Amino acid sequence: MESSSASRTATLSAAEPNSTNQTKICVYCGSASGKSPKHIEAARALGKAMAEKNIALVYGGGTVGLMGEVAKTIVSMNGPNAVHGIIPEALVKWERDDTYGEKKDANGYHVPEERVYGRTTVVKDMHTRKRLMAQEVMEGGPGSGFIALSGGFGTMEELLETATWNQLGIHSKGVCVLNTDGFYDGLLTWIRNSVEEGFVQPGNANIIVTATDAEGAIQALKDYKISDARYGLDWNQE
Fold first, then answer.
1. Closest to 164 (Cα-Cα) out of 235, 213, 100
2. Residue 110 per-residue DSSP state
3. Which of 84, 120, 164, 168 is deepest in the core (most CB within 10 A)?
4. Mind listing the pLDDT tens digit for each residue in 126-168?
5. How far apart are CA 11 and CA 235, in angstroms?
6. Beta bridge partners of 87
7. Helix, coil or strand: residue 219
């Protein structure tokens, strides 16, 4: 597993951002809508704000819950080329609605309607999904990065892995939680406790930045400052 991980990270660190490229934001979020309507409203607001700023979306490819709401909001404003969903084959039957129907891609996988949810790529496993999503962000223009809306285990795992990759020097893109109605207060408390107990360097406490609304989250990525306490590791060495 370690050699496979090293191969993945080397590929990621080789990407060079280009100031002329379109800004791309990878959004991590739940395939459920949540009990409070504030969560779906936050997803819709983020999609609208991204579309208005011509920011492309990279996401997990689901068409339900917060995932589907962000995607279809952006597509409705900027068209299907503004969204790229990447989903593992095994998750297709769980993170989809009835728009999948009979449409298949070139490899025979069922995919959602492009005119509603944008382009979809079906991959074999979770590692490939995460690597491809991160690669697109790393090749994006200024302000590209990662935003986490509310979600469950999968959202938290993606968020913390992305933050860890930043700490390890695998990428230098911003990582932001959009803290809807205090949803991530517990995580932020845990980060502070980890610093106080010596498990996280004080300079790395703000690898994950926060915002309480869509505009603030996008701006946080634009203004993101790389931590001086990150590990100076070279992931291109064999």
1. 235
2. B
3. 120
4. 999 999 999 999 999 999 999 999 999 999 999 999 999 999 9
5. 9
6. 122
7. helix
